[in-house]
Each structure stands twice: as structure tokens, then as C-alpha cells.
Amino acid sequence: MSSSKIYIQKRKELLSKIFVIRRIFERLIIFLLVAIILKSFCLINDALLIKLVIIKIKDVLLRAVIPAAGFGTRLKPHTYSLPKVLLNVGGKPIIGHIIDKIISENIFKATFIIGYMGEKIIDYINKNYKQLKADFVEQEELLGLGHAIYKAIPTFDNDDLLIILGDTIFDVNLKNVLSQKINAVGVKEVDDPSRFGVAVCENNRIIKLIEKPQNLISKLALVGLYYIYNTNLLKECLNEIINKDIKTKGEYQLTDALQLMIEKGELITTFTVDGWYDCGKPETLLSTNKFLLLKNNTQRKYENVLINNPVFISESAIVKNSIIGPYTTIAEDCIITDSIIINSIISSGAKIEKTMLENSIIGSNAVIKGNFKKLNAGDSSEIEFF
Fold first, then answer.
1. Checking DSSP bridges between strand 197-202 and strand 268-272, what pairing results, if any?
2. What pLDDT does residue 380 have?
């Protein structure tokens, strides 16, 4: 890369950071003006004013941490050419839905732990989320979630942390969680907790965290959403599990670091996450696509096209003589002709012609061509198509 291009890129990054800082200070100044007005009318006292200011400053010092370094083995062949978090679901990449959620919660700082094809993640975020102060940390070896968060420590400063797994979409009100200023872990009751980390609780206080237990000791599965108020203690405990080589099932686990926090006397509570949508396998990616389309879909009309909502069809997609939906996503620049597509995800630039697809995921720029047949078959016929 030439020196002029490097300069332009660094200038863009600097302007983006200045923009984010300005937005943070604008929010803080507006809040302070409102608080002063309330104080002048004797609606709040000095003690409450100071408490509110401290809470608001802590709100500003909030950072999302999103691990996104995994290979996405269960989603091959799609992840041969694209990192898992950039797979399209409900009209945009998985990580796009996560970033939209944190921005809606007024979180404008985020650390992304990247690895496999990380440059594509960087390009997507820098291009589409200029209002976000994004830091990127590379996890060269996939040694566990605890190791991923440990690698991100230099970006934490004094921020509270909201850790969100990069392949999971949540539907939960975070405002109540963040306003409590208490460490909290998102949980959901499941019938088979052996595939998850679980929380053992007494009076909503976690007393023990166990990674993938063999015996049933709790049905409260950890869903991959963590609010950390005591960031300094988390740093200390992450350093401890790395320096002492504390592993569970061959990996450095975040649950082990959180367990150390508990053993050092730190309070960690739980909050319920009913809307928990995994994107780690083809079948769960399709079910998450269905959930997202039920919440947000496009209402487009085309000549000679039957659309069974809910669907998402990009404005740049071309659809002719077809039946689309329900629960179907068609991304940008797709061309669909003479086809029937149900409960499927068609990624950008794909071309589908004379084909019937159901429960399918089609990658970017793929070309699928079939043909329809007309038959007049008599009794006891045997017909095979190849």
C-alpha cells in the first residue's frame, strides 16, 4: 500500500474516532444541562445529582466485546470464503444485527476479536459503522473464549464490558441489565444443559459456574451474553487463568475466570434471555432467519411474482416469474427467475433459474440452474430423473 493510501486510511480512522468522542460528549453535556435545570427547580438534591452524573459517566464508559475469530466449521462450505459472522441472515450479516443492537443501547465503543479472514470483518465494520469506535484484536490461536477476552484486555481502559458472542443474536431488553451496575450473566432454562456452560444459583446470585457438566446440576444455560461491571477484577482473573495455565476441556474458559471472581467475593447475578438465536449451524441459521423476518421484512411487489411474506428482498435484487417465501432472504444483486424458493437464504450475487429450493442456503455468486418437466405418466409408471 502506498504512503498516500496509508495516510488517507489513518485520516479516516482518526475522523471516525473524533466523531464518536464528540457524540459521547454531546450526550453527556445534554444530560448535565437537564440535571442542572432539575436541580434549579429543586426537583433533585445534591446527593442524587452526583449519583446520576456518576451513573451517566459510567454509561458513557461502556464497551462491547465481540469474539468473532472462529472458523465456522459447522457452516462449511459457506465459511470457506467468508467468516461465519458475515453470513447473511434476515437481510444482513450476523454481526450487523449485533452491532445494530449495541448501538440501539447507546454503546459506541466495541472491541472485535478476529482471526480467520479477519480483514473482511474489519472492512465490513469500517465501511458500514463509521459511528462506532471499533478496535480489532487478533487471536492467532483459538484457545478458548477466556483466551479471546484476555487478548482484548489492552482495549478495555476503565470501561464496563458487554461481552456478546459473535455468532448469536439476542432479543432482550439490556437497559435494565446495564442500569443495575452489577455483574450479570444471561441465562436460559434448557432441557439438556450438557452442551453449555451452566450457572448454579442461590437467590439469583451465582455460586458456581460449570462448563458443559456431565451430570444435571442446573438447567440455567449460559447463552453468551455477559455484563461485567468490575472490569479490573475480570482482568486480574483472566491473567490468573492464563499465567497458571488453568484450562477446562483443553481451553481457557471465560467461565473459569468468572468463577475466580465469585471465589474472590464478587457478586455476579443472572438475567433471563428468552430470545436466544444461534447461528452456528445451517438449521439454526435458517430458524434465526425466520425469527428476524417475522420482526422485520420487506413489502415489495413485482409483476408475475407471488410473494408469501415474511421475506426480505434487497432493492438491488431482480425477481421474475417466481414464488418467494415464506421465510426467505434474497440479498443484494441476486437474480431469481422462474423459481420457487421457500425458507431459504440466498446470498449476494447468486443467480437462481428454474429451480425449486426449500430449507436451503445458497452462497454468494453461486449459480443454480434446473429445469421443470411436464409429465403424462400412466398407471404403474416408474420414472427416474438424473
1. unpaired
2. 47
Q: How many residues does the chain have?
A: 386
4-30: pLDDT as tens digits: 555 555 565 565 556 555 655 665 666
Tally Cβ neighbours within 10 Å of residue 195.
9
Structure confidence at residue 245 (pLDDT): 94
Residues in the chain with pLDDT values less than 70: 1-32, 34-35, 38-60, 371-386
Q: Is residue 101 within 8 Å of 95, Cβ to Cβ?
A: no
Helix (H, G, I), strand (E, B) or coil at 340: strand
Predicted pLDDT of residue 34: 65
**280 in Cβ contact with 167 (< 8 Å):** yes
| Non-local CB neighbours of 331 within 8 Å, separated by 6+ positions | 88, 91, 314, 317, 345, 346, 347, 348, 349, 350, 364
Q: How far apart are CA 130 and CA 123, in angstroms?
A: 11
β-pair type (62-68, 109-114): parallel
Q: How many helices (H) and strands (E) does the chain have?
A: 9, 25
Cα(6)–Cα(14) distance, integer angstroms: 12
The pLDDT tens digits of the residues spanning 36-94 come to 776 666 666 666 655 555 545 544 578 999 999 988 888 888 888 899 999 999 999 99
61-278: what CATH class? alpha beta
For residue 379, what pLDDT is reported?
A: 47
pLDDT at position 66, please? 96
Q: Are 176 and 269 in contact (CB under 8 A)?
A: no
Cell of 171: 432479543
Identify which of 124, 125, 122, 116 has the alpha carbon closest to the alpha carbon of residue 81: 116
Fold of the domain spanning 298-369: UDP N-Acetylglucosamine Acyltransferase; domain 1 (2.160.10)
Q: Are 63 and 159 in contact (CB under 8 A)?
A: yes
Dihedrals phi, psi of 241, to nearest 5 degrees: -70, -30
What DSSP state is assigned to residue 243? H
- 169-184 burial code (b ≥16 CB/10 A, e <16): bbebebeebbeeeebb
H or E stretch covering 112: strand 109-114
328-330 and 345-346 strand pairing: parallel
